[in-house]
Design brief:
Elements: H1 2-31, H2 37-48, H3 53-65, H4 72-88, H5 92-108, H6 112-128, H7 132-149, H8 152-168, H9 172-188, H10 192-208, H11 212-229, H12 232-248, H13 252-269, H14 272-288, H15 292-339, H16 343-439, H17 444-468, H18 471-476, H19 478-489, E1 496-502, H20 510-531, E2 535-542, E3 546-553, H21 567-578, E4 582-587, E5 593-600
Parallel strand pairs: 1-2
Antiparallel strand pairs: 2-3, 3-5, 4-5
């Protein structure tokens, strides 16, 4: 609460300064020379972009129609900024229309900065509509322009945006890589907007992994940045993220507190999208509390807003289609009038058209037949490939199962057979040793040495038995077994390590427990043998659908193309494949390694 009160004070103080600044600009505009109007309009548009979109649209239109603002660079900048404002209030059709116009002007005059801004905003719109490939394409185009300009703010923003696409595709390691690169740029150049975006994205990534405790500090960092920059719209997104995190943590009083603050700011911005997100969050919170009536009310309000956004966009699309149709119709009428003077030529063209369509139809039928045949062949091949992969999985699963069963049998035989025999022999020899030492004192050292050898043999048999099939794993479960294994390996070395587990309350399927244990054992062995690390972090996380194992070290790292075909790597991949899981590395030389294993449960 102290953090939030501090942020609130900063926000109020900055808002007062902001209001004074915009008032002074508006006064300056009334008496400014014509040569200065373009600059003042631009400052007013940027000042109101997030806090008062209606005023930003008003000044954009005034700027576009001003007789002294017809220079192409000014026009490109104004159109692209107007598109960003429309995008912020969910008027995506208008946003794309004016933005494309601005981008065409920028490309014509090689204005790389405006091209970068336009490409990035188009990427945002495609992302909102979940067209990931197009969004990634325009984000990369924007990043290329920013790199060309050596523009740190743009580079940081586009890297963060690229990360959001990988996050949407659930490619978590790649997403976090881009977010951290963006955060480093923001901190290096003290770029508050870049810091806000990257901190928020890192927080959302942790929230996706149900790690709300790690997500909240990043969201509060973001909120502080939003207050500094007076980013009213950004602060609404951040407040909603904070509220949703407290909701997941079941701290409902704080969740409602932040939802209400977000609502007040969203109403001020006038964004239907933000209000829809607020009602969705409130509906889910009430549902968790068992207040179904309130949950349903908020759900209906969210749905009404979503339907409203959809219908507005649909109407604009219909207007465009109607305009295009009327234009084409008029063009066709003009062509028909020009052809009436030559009837014979028209007949010839009709015959040629008929022949063309016959040829086209024949080729189309032929192409369609070939396509159907190729699809059939491809379908058969995919079916065969799936059958082969399935058989391979069954074979690998059988081998792994047989191996683990044999490990159990050998472990039991060693413990119950050889182990007990050695223990009996040790007791017998201890008694015999005392008698022999009494009768033949000169043999004392030899008898003691032999007794030590016998002790070591008992210890080795017991150790081998536990390694073949850990008793802790079969009796107490995965968490206890990993803790025992880490204590006996890393605990006896110079490594610092920490083991955290979240959401694990019971036992898992035996195959899953054994596989995760063996993979963790192999990863820890790799760290000890190859990483030259000082610190190791192990996390075991259970969410709704997956069991996730993260093993991170601060060692030397490696290139991904190196050392990928070792026996240990193949064993881990085989175990993961039989469980329909996934296995990935994130490593670079000198920056450590993060191994991520996901198994469906």
């Amino acid at each position: 609460m102290k953090i939030f009160l501090t942020l609130g004070f900063v926000s109020i103080l900055y808002s007062l300064c902001y209001a004074q600044n915009t008032d002074s600009l508006e006064l300056e505009l009334q008496s400014a020379d014509d040569s200065l109007t373009a600059s003042i309009y631009y400052q007013l548009i940027r000042a109101h972009e997030y806090s008062n979109p209606k005023k930003a649209i008003h000044y954009s239109r005034l700027s576009l129609t001003h007789p002294h603002n017809q220079e192409k660079s000014i026009q490109a900048r104004t159109y692209i900024n107007l598109g960003k404002v429309y995008k912020n209030i969910s008027e995506y059709d208008s946003a794309v229309k004016v933005m494309l116009h601005g981008i065409r002007i920028a490309e014509e005059i090689d204005d790389h900065k405006m091209m970068a801004m336009g490409y990035n905003s188009l990427g945002v719109i495609f992302k909102i509509n979940k067209e990931w490939d197009n969004a990634l394409k325009y984000y990369r185009l924007s990043n290329e322009q920013c790199v060309l300009l050596e523009y740190p703010m743009g580079i940081g923003m586009t890297l963060s945006n690229i990360g959001t696409i990988y996050g949407a595709r659930n490619e978590m390691d790649s997403a976090m890589k881009y977010y951290k690169q963006a955060a480093q740029i923001g901190e290096k150049y003290d770029l508050i907007d870049v810091q806000a975006t990257s901190y928020n994205n890192i927080g959302e990534q942790y929230a996706k992994l149900d790690m709300e405790g790690k997500a909240l500090p990043y969201f509060f960092k973001t909120l502080k940045c939003d207050s500094i920059t007076n980013n009213l719209m950004g602060s609404v997104f951040t407040l909603l993220n904070i509220a949703n995190s407290y909701k997941v943590l079941e701290d409902y009083s704080k969740a409602f507190e932040y939802f209400e603050i977000a609502k007040l700011r969203a109403e001020k911005v006038g964004s239907k999208q933000l209000m829809s997100m607020y009602y969705h969050g409130m509906s889910d919170t009430y549902e968790r509390l068992g207040k179904n009536k309130e949950a349903l009310t908020n759900f209906k309000l969210a749905k009404q807003l979503n339907d409203s956004i959809f219908n507005e966009e649909k109407s604009l699309q219909l207007v465009r289609m109607q305009t295009q149709y009327e234009t084409e119709k008029k063009q066709l009428e003009i062509e028909n009038l020009s052809q009436k003077s030559n009837i014979q030529q028209l007949e010839i063209q009709k015959k040629q058209g008929l022949i063309y369509w016959m040829v086209f139809g024949t080729l189309a039928l032929l192409a369609f037949g070939i396509l159907i045949f190729l699809q059939f062949k491809s379908k058969q091949k995919r079916k065969l490939d799936r059958a082969i992969i399935q058989e391979q999985k069954k074979g690998i699963d059988a081998v792994i199962h047989a191996t683990e069963e044999e490990r159990k049998r050998i472990a039991k035989d060693l413990h119950d057979g050889v182990g007990q025999q050695l223990s009996g022999l040790k007791l017998f020899f201890s008694k015999l040793k005392d008698d022999l030492i009494t009768k033949k004192p000169e043999m004392k050292e030899q008898l003691i040495e032999f007794n030590q050898v016998l002790d070591e043999a008992c210890t080795d048999v017991r150790s081998i038995s536990h390694q073949m099939m850990p008793k802790t794993l079969t009796e107490q479960g995965l968490v206890a077994a990993i803790e025992d294994m880490l204590n006996k390996s890393l605990g006896l070395s110079n490594f610092e390590y920490e083991f955290e587990h979240y959401g694990i309350k019971g036992r898992f399927n035996e195959r899953i427990e054994i596989s995760i244990y063996r993979i963790c054992q192999e990863l820890i062995n790799n760290v000890i043998k190859h990483s030259k690390a000082e610190h190791v972090s192990i996390q075991l996380i259970k969410n709704e659908k997956h069991l996730v194992l993260l093993v991170e070290d601060d060692g030397t790292g490696f290139l991904k193309k190196e050392s990928k075909d070792g026996i240990g790597q193949l064993n881990m991949s085989s175990r993961i494949n039989t469980l329909n899981g996934s296995f990935s590395y994130d490593s670079e030389p000198g920056r450590g390694t993060v191994a991520t294993i996901r198994v469906p449960i």
